[in-house]
Write a structure and sequence with these properties.
The structure is a homodimer. Chain A is built from 13 helices and 14 strands. Chain A has about 325 residues and is α/β, with parallel strands linked by helices. Chain A has one domain: Rossmann fold, CATH 3.40.50.10680. Chain A has a seven-stranded parallel sheet with strand order 5-2-1-9-10-13-14, with helices on both faces. In chain A, helix 1 runs parallel beside helix 2 and helix 4 crosses helix 5. At the A-B interface, helix 3, helix 4 and helix 5 of A face helix 3, helix 4 and helix 5 of B.
Chain lengths: ~325, ~325
């Protein structure tokens, strides 16, 4: 007995919904996919980072989840495809086209297929289902909505499109405000509502609370579906020991006026989830989390590799 | 003295317009580009073969001319790029996308840049000027018009889009009729009119008379610009010894009710050009060509390599 649940712990009846941004959420999705029976995981993915490049609809978070779950992601960077080539990108640069966002040759196929399907009138939800099926996935990858929502951040340089801030300018600007253009016209899809209604576990991934999880929760109708769900809800802190494992979450907590700690994140999720997972390193914050009305859980949350992802997923599934 | 004109034969004042389809025309363009002073060649290119693939505007003849003149064409097949890779295509096939028309990774950059520029409202003429400039060309590559014209062929299987007939079905259908959808709404661009007005030599490349040269000549206004031009006009036969060097020209001559010979082509161009070039192999047809009111010229027309292209180009330039 090593303390880890064996295969007999897989409850084939349990259905899980994960709210996810990009790399960190995708890694958690991968652990949950292995921990659950096939087809029992739905990943609700932020689309606020989506943008148009060279006429193509690029969906960074959706594709990171897709590639990770299909075991095609680049293991070093966490996004993009393994064994990718960059011939088209190089030719684009020679033609003077923008090259700040790097599109790999194989990745391009995803954007081409998606863009054309959208133009033919297929929904983004439908397109992602097609792509997931083509890559052999049973997990459902659900865009948070089918309407275009665009995250923008206010900085001293003015309002920036998210990828401008995130990739082109390398997250160097202090974020003073975050907005989700178009979100009032969006609505939770039938697929998202059904997934939440059928779930017995909803997990908020350790993704950025402001630009990955917030837009999902703000899609009209989605929060209500979550509240009406009978599922146990649990959030995993993206902040460990006062640092973000990846991306600008720590800088945003600070610049947006929150405490730079897992507790600062817990306060954001107060009233949204039943349980809040702290890393071992933050065990001392457990009483403060409890005082927010959430059950604190202390677990090793740093998913350094597939075994850690699976162990964390199994721990989350266990009540 | 080897009989070939030396550099002193380059008349810097002479301006040449070539009417061209794909591979054969591109090879002639390449010879003319070397034979003329820089910037003195304009190539008027058929766009009836253009089509949309995965939302991208693909212009096979324009790109073949572009790549050939920029010395980037695949020397074996005559179209596409040298040292091309096919990663995106392979990924597209895995996603179930159509793969009957092969798009190379580097070639894709051209289609992406063009499609986006067109979407932004740039004309096809403007886009091709941008691409030619990016690849360092001084020769002008002019689409026959900016409007969408689509060549279709009537067969026993019904009306087929040109690329359906040409690539997907491998030219196996007997062509009973050719039509250029949208050509009545097209018009000769200012750039095409100017090039014809300024030319002292207009060459009809040994391209397919029915699907490469005919659409160009049928663009409203273009034929009049050609007739009003003071240029000497000359056509090169695509049929040598009763065979087409490439493509379905011979089969079309036959199925559309013409004599399968260079003379059959000469009859099509009677009244259009002043001179008609026969290959050495067809010298016996010279009197018949003369009787059509065209000056017959007998030259080695088979452009097996760069030296032959240059020699033919120089011979055409010489009155």
């Amino acid at each position: 007995m090593n303390g880890l649940p064996g295969p007999e712990d897989k409850n084939p009846a349990s259905r899980c919904v994960l709210l996810s941004g990009g790399v960190g959420g995708a890694r958690m999705a991968e652990g949950l996919q292995r921990a659950l029976a096939p087809g029992r995981l739905s990943v609700l993915v932020n689309t606020g980072d989506d943008f148009e490049l060279l006429g193509l609809r690029v969906c960074p978070d959706l594709d990171t989840v897709l590639y990770t779950l299909a075991d095609r992601a680049n293991p070093d960077q966490g996004w993009g495809l393994r064994d990718e080539t960059w011939e088209c990108m190089q030719a684009l640069a020679e033609l003077g086209a923008p090259s700040w966002f790097r599109l790999g040759d194989r990745d391009l196929a995803t954007h081409l297929v998606r863009t054309e399907a959208l133009k033919r009138g297929r929904s983004l939800t439908g397109v992602m289902a097609d792509l997931a099926r083509a890559l052999g996935l049973e997990t459902r990858i659900l865009p948070m909505c089918d309407e275009a929502v665009r995250t923008r951040v206010r900085t001293r340089e003015g309002l920036l499109d998210f990828q401008d801030y995130f990739v082109r300018r390398g997250q160097r600007d202090r974020v003073l405000e975050v907005e989700f253009a178009g979100i009032r016209q969006a609505q939770a899809t039938r697929e998202v509502q059904e997934a939440l209604a059928q779930a017995d576990l909803v997990v908020l991934a350790p993704s950025n609370p402001f630009v990955s999880i917030a837009p999902i929760l703000q899609v009209p109708g989605l929060r209500r579906s979550l509240e009406e769900s009978a599922a146990r809800t649990i959030a995993v802190s993206p902040i460990v020991g006062g640092r973000a494992l990846k991306g600008p979450a720590a800088a945003m907590l600070e610049s947006l006026g929150h405490e730079l700690s897992a507790l600062g994140v817990a306060r954001l999720y107060s009233g949204v989830v039943d349980e809040f997972v702290l890393d071992l390193e933050d065990e001392r914050l457990a009483p403060a989390v409890a005082s927010l009305g959430m059950r604190p859980r202390v677990l090793p949350t740093v998913m350094s590799g597939p075994p850690e992802r699976l162990a964390l997923a199994r721990a989350l599934i266990r009540p």
